[in-house]
Amino acid sequence: MIKLGYAKTDITPEIPLQLVGFNRTDNTSRGVLKPLLAQVSIWESEECQCFITIDSIGFKRELADVLRIKVGKILNVTRDKVMLCFSHCHAAPDPDDSKEYFEMVCRNILTAVQSAADNMEPVSVGWDNAEVDIGVNRRGNQQIGLDKRAGILEARDLERGERKLLLIRVTAHCNVLKRDNYLISPDYFGNIRELLQEKYGCPIMVIQGAAGNIAPKYFDSTETPVDATGAQYIRSSTALEDMANAVYEKMSPKMTSIKMADTLSAHMCSKETVFYANVPSLTAAEKIAEEAKNYCGIDGTAWLAEVRKLRNAGVFRQEETIEVQYFTIGEWCICGVPYELMVEFALETMEKLNNEFFYVNGYTNGCLSYFPTEEEYDKGGYEVYWSILIYYKYFNRVFPFERDSAGKLIRFIIENVPMTE
Question: pTM of the predicted model, to two decimals?
Answer without folding.
Answer: 0.95
